[in-house]
Amino acid sequence: MRANILIVDDEPVARKTLTDILRLEGYNVACVANGQAGVEHLRAHHVDVMIVDLKMPGMSGLDVIHFASQVSPDTEIILLTAYGSTESAVEALRLRIHDYLTKPAAPAQILNSVRRGLERREARLRSKSGLSDAMDIEEGVIFKFRDGTVVDLSRRVIHYQDRGVHLTPAEGRLLRILLDNPGRVFTHRELVLLVQGYETSQLEAPEILRPLVSRLRHKLASIPLLAECIVSVRGTGYVLEESNST
Fold first, then answer.
1. pTM (2 decimals)?
2. Crossing angle of helices 12-24/107-128, nearest 10°?
3. Which one of 6, 193, 225, 246 counts the least CB within 10 Å of its CB?
């Protein structure tokens, strides 16, 4: 069965572009021009993934997300905006959206985000029926790897064989973001915003992140599958190489 995608965006060009990209991939796509219409669609239809713009007349993207969390909690949500801000990013993370993309997002980035959202939704639904090794936890996620490594982000601890590696809150947030988005390159500024909750300049961001990434890498060095997973992208930021989690 083809996945159902809902696009909520007040910009006609953005709606058409997203619709064309996703329909070419075989998805069922519905699009609406404002938050109220998005809410009405959620009330009446099954939606697997919703892509919602942040800044819209009337109901904002965050208003729609709040509504979706109540009436359609299994819908994965991608927040798409040209107006990134500290407040919106922090609020979106608190609501546990799947992804936060900045316009204009590349087609490959959009498709990858939707694919991962569908995979995450499937894993969560399977975990509810006891069929999956990946479980959503109130404050985090448990990732299980083929060599027995368990990353428990609800307790901020990594278990490998008989060892336990403990993470700070910032290290846990950083690892969660990267594990949720394997293969996606995050800029230094994006990571500072998402991990620390504030905006910074392009020059300051690498200096803020470097000690945090260094400490996390040091802790992961004793975990074979994670030892070299965080890769620096010169002049840009960091990426998590594709993992082999199950």
1. 0.56
2. 70
3. 246
